[in-house]
Amino acid sequence: MKYALVGYGKMGHAIEAAASARGHDVGPIVDRAGKGRGITRAIGKGSWRGVTVAFEFTEPAAARDHLVALLERGIGVVCGTTGWDAGDAALRRAAKASSAGAVIAPNFSVGMNLFYTAVADAARRYLAVGGYDPWIAEWHHRAKADAPSGTARRLAAIVAEAAPDGAAVREGLLRTPLAPGDVHVAAVRAGREPGRHLVGFDGQDDAVTLEHVARGREGFARGAVLAAEWLRGRRGLHGFEDVLNDLTRGRRPRGGRR
Questions:
Q1: Distance (Å, rounded) from C-alpha 154 to C-alpha 134?
Q2: pLDDT in tens, 115-156
Q3: Distances in whole angstroms, Cα of residue 202 to Cα of each of 69, 119, 134, 208
Q4: Which of 11, 44, 17 is nearest to 28 (CA)?
Q5: I need a labelling partner for 126 at 20 to 30 A (CA). Which of 33, 68, 95, 174 fits?
Q6: CA distances (Å), origin 71, targets 15, 90, 97, 120, 227
Q7: How many Å apart are CA 146 and CA 92, to the nearest integer?
Q8: In a 3-state reduction of DSSP, which class is residue 211?
Q9: How far is CA 135 from CA 88, 209, 212, 254, in A?
Q10: Residue 35 has what pLDDT?
């Protein structure tokens, strides 16, 4: 497949390497800084002939407009930008009218998305028994803009939804005490940590912690490329769980070298 990169930071470079390893060809590269030969500042510039999918890893304020513009061109999108409303009405309208589709997820790590399933199962069991306080903690490098991360928020939502009577998610510094069952989410920004997420269940007699540690951006990039291969020929808005559900059933993505 021929793909475009919208956002050419560290993730953009990692995706380019992962896509090349799978036998795919890079087309337009769009980056707000516009530095480097052949890099444009906006989606409307340059040649998009033959491009079937774009990887969108930019910033929250720009993501929706990028997705709408790409879908209107009939180009599929794999979007990993976090901190924006992926349920936006304009995006839904663009997706409904487009011949292409999009995969939108806060995290394209295969391991993390399988971790979601493990956390959901653990939360159902511990919260059904009662007596355990759930919590989420995450660490990322100091340059990461959003806090908590989109992944931490997804984990917190999974835990809250597993509570028998539902639960509230409380982020950051608490001004009032937690109610029983509330999910507290804490974030640390320091150093060069690529991503560490913990989910805990703290009880009177014991405590249980589940942990996912990212070793680098390469895993996120490989997952994004798998999502792009899976998206070929599909319409509508999807999450990365849709991709993994097919993979775990033995349905391989379309395209890429084996």
A1: 14
A2: 999 999 999 999 999 999 999 999 999 998 889 998 999 999
A3: 46, 14, 6, 6
A4: 44
A5: 174
A6: 20, 11, 8, 32, 16
A7: 24
A8: strand
A9: 28, 9, 14, 38
A10: 74
With beta carbons less than 8 A apart as the criterion, state whether 54 and 4 touch. Answer: yes
Helix, strand, coil share (%) of the chain residues, nearest 5: 35, 25, 40
- Pull the structure tokens for residue 29: 């590269």
Mean pLDDT of the chain: 93
* Alpha-helix runs per DSSP H in 86-211: 89-97, 110-129, 150-162
**Residue 57's pLDDT band (boundaries 50, 70, 90)?**
very high
Amino acid identity for residue 188 in this structure: V
Which residues lie across from 133 on neighbouring strands? 202
Q: Which of 198, 195, 216, 215 is nearest to 207 (CA)?
A: 198
Q: What are the phi and psi torsion angles at 92 (to 5°)?
A: -60, -40
Q: Known catalytic residues?
A: 140, 144
> 34-38, 40-44, 108-112, 222-226: which range is least confident on average?
34-38
Residue 42, phi then psi, degrees to nearest 5? -140, 155
112, 214 Cβ separation under 8 angstroms: yes
Order the strands of the 53-56 sheet from edge to edge.
39-40, 25-30, 2-6, 53-56, 76-79, 101-104, 236-238
Name the pLDDT band for 32 (thresholds 50, 70, 90): confident
